[in-house]
Amino acid sequence: AGLGMRSIDDVQALTAFFEARYGQMYGFRWKDWADFKSCRSSEGVAFEDQMLGVGDGLRNDYQLVKTYRSGGHSYARPVTKPVEGTVRVGIAQDELQEGVDYEVDTSTGMIRFAHAPDPDMPVSAGYEFDVPVRFDTDRILVSVASFQAGQVPNVPVIEVRI
Known about the structure:
Elements: H1 8-20, E1 28-30, E2 50-54, E3 61-63, E4 65-70, E5 73-78, E6 88-91, E7 94-95, E8 102-105, E9 110-113, E10 122-126, E11 131-135, H2 144-148, E12 157-159
Antiparallel strand pairs: 1-11, 2-10, 3-9, 4-5, 6-7, 6-10, 8-9, 11-12
């Protein structure tokens, strides 16, 4: 977290943010610039980015996920902190409209459809997301002299997984 520090004012803002969360006690949303979209970072979000499931005519709720693949292995990571206004959802070939066809809970990553998707219809979504994290230290060690000499504080964060 210390890499973006450019001035002593930045360090003071970070310290205030750290103290307001009581160090490691309370989590917060973090934009991981290496992984913050349902697609590649260089692409635009599209409703076909990630498969959420297949309709059964009964289920209205679908969890946002991002599937990572490498060779024959994959991992479907639950996405619990989508960025408001970036979520695009579709069923089969049709993109749906937020607020009419579905709602997004930006604190859980759940999509709730107004009507359950028809049986055998693929449900997909694209979005930007934050990662729930907390500080992974009890204190931030900052030396104003070393900071002005070009060193930044070491401020580790760790993902909070449910």
